[in-house]
Amino acid sequence: MTTFEDFNKPFGVKNYINTCIEFFPSPLPNKFSSSDEEFSESYDLFQSSMDFNFEPIFIPPSEEITICELDIDNFKLIPGSDKIISGKEFLKFQLQKINIDTLIQLPSRVDFSLHDELKTDLLKQTLDPSIELNDWGEPVDESKYPYWLNYSDNLFNIYKPVEKDYVKEWEKNLKIGKKFLEEFRISHSSLLLDPLADAILNPDWGIYNHWETKIENLSEVRQSYSKWNCPLMVIYSGKMWPQYTNNGWPNFNSPTYNIYDVYVRNNDEGTPM
To answer: Are 12 and 242 in contact (CB under 8 A)?
Structure first.
């Protein structure tokens, strides 16, 4: 039993987390959804991606963090309920809980793919043992292929084609990718989410790389990234105390926060104007 299977109840992070990511369609929004009031600062974007069916993801340090049970009547941490967990376990738990539209945005951004070894392990663990396999671990009879196997090279392709003739095929692949993630993030979480979490936290190609543009003038950055073929990744740096209530939307939110800087991350997704 993992830490979170034993602690799947409302909780909050006691010691702050300093990085959060969100996704937004381009161009970036410029006003609050609940009113016509325009954003005045870059930090106004924080936790507004839910207006577009995305959720924030709080990126923990790789070392340990402390969480406490949450009193959902007043949203305060319960004294004496401290529990120390690894940052990676907290990240994996978020990857299990966030909605699938948010999750599918992550793999290609951190160079995660369904490589041959992972694909072979999934097939071994999910196919009927009586099915005859070839030297690559795939069914000899193609009619026995799982629904995702023929699409494994493009399961996480979030980049909408420019040419309209290819859009329907891309939408089909994306739908299969979402189904794949929805299924295997629960049934084979260690096999799928462990390497994805490692990729996100990797110091060489993970989330902490490719912070391309600091948002100091929201209007100017909004224009620069107005033509993009995938949702924009926005990164916040500051102090955040995320909470999980087990029944809210978004799944994780930080009622208390101090945002210092906001960036657009770009890992070879396009060229700003």
So the answer is: yes
Please tell me the pTM assigned to this model.
0.94
- DSSP for 50-98, written as a single string: GGGT---EEE--SSEEEEEEEETTTTEEPTT--EEEEHHHHHHHHHHHS
The total of other beta-carbon atoms located within 10 Å of residue 114's CB is 21
Two structure tokens written together for 51: 């207006």
Identity at 220, one-letter amino acid code: E
pLDDT digits (tens, 9 = 90+) for 49-65: 999 999 999 999 989 99
**Residue 26: which of 164, 158, 196, 207 has the closest Cα?**
158
> What value, to the nearest 5°, has the Cα angle with vertex 50 and ends 254 and 159?
120
**CB burial string 202-214: b at 16+ within 10 A, e below:** beeebbeebbeee
> Domain ranges in the chain?
3-113+189-265
